[in-house]
Every structure is written in structure tokens, then in C-alpha cells.
Write a structure and sequence with these properties.
The structure is a single chain. This protein is of the alpha+beta class. The chain has one domain. The chain is built from 2 helices and 4 strands. The chain has a 4-stranded antiparallel beta sheet with strand order 1-2-3-4, with helices on one face. A hairpin with a 2-residue loop joins β1 and β2.
């Protein structure tokens, strides 16, 4: 009888829990060490830029800004991608450049205005 109660309690707990779903930006999560193609890197960097706009961390004027440059640089843990966006319409003149750093496989590591 005690086993039946445990099974019923477990089933009830599982049926009441909600599933965990990835957010819209979940497509830019990669495993392994295979280097990403430049096209993939640009797509993931643009998704991060748009997520920063949506969260209010970047001004809305950044929404349509295209990348200016993409390059591979030496990071702390090896090669990284650096994507540079420039927005002359940014309200803060010291923050007209946005740098998005991604790992070699394409995972976003950081985004900042300093480029470091």
C-alpha cells in the first residue's frame, strides 16, 4: 500500500511540473570544438545584439545596425570571434561601438563597448 502511495505522489508531482523550454536565442549554443562558419557567427552576434536591445541594455537605435567587421582574435582560452557593430546614432558617444565575442564554435562569450 505504501508503494502505491509513493507512485501516486510521484505521478502527481510530475504532472504538475511545467516543462523547461529554451528561449528564442537557444539556437546559438554549440558543443564541441569545431570552428563555426562566419555566417553562423554573424547570425549569433546579431541575435545577441537584438536580445540586448529587447532587454533595454542597448538603445533601440541598435536594432537594425549591421556588423562592420568580423575577425578571429586570440582570447584567454584560444581563438575567439570578435564581431564589431558601429552605431553613430547611439545616444552615448562613448558607446558607439558594440563588440560581441564568441568562442570558436560560436557560443557568445561577452558583449561590451570596450572591445576587451
Amino acid at each position: 500500500m505504501q508503494r502505491i502511495a509513493i507512485v501516486l505522489a510521484s505521478l502527481a508531482a510530475f504532472s504538475m511540473s511545467s516543462p523547461v523550454l529554451a528561449d528564442k536565442g537557444g539556437s546559438c549554443h554549440f558543443h564541441g570544438a569545431a570552428p563555426a562558419k562566419e555566417e553562423t557567427v554573424l547570425t549569433c552576434a546579431a541575435q545577441r545584439r537584438d536580445a540586448l536591445v529587447a532587454s533595454g541594455k542597448l538603445d533601440a537605435s541598435w536594432k537594425g545596425v549591421k556588423h562592420e567587421k568580423v575577425e578571429q582574435v586570440d582570447g584567454k582560452k584560444g581563438k575567439e570571434w570578435k564581431v564589431i557593430f558601429r552605431n553613430p546614432a547611439a545616444p552615448d558617444k562613448d558607446k558607439q561601438s558594440l563588440y560581441v565575442f564568441l568562442s570558436a564554435p560560436g557560443n557568445v562569450l561577452a558583449a561590451n563597448h570596450s572591445g576587451k
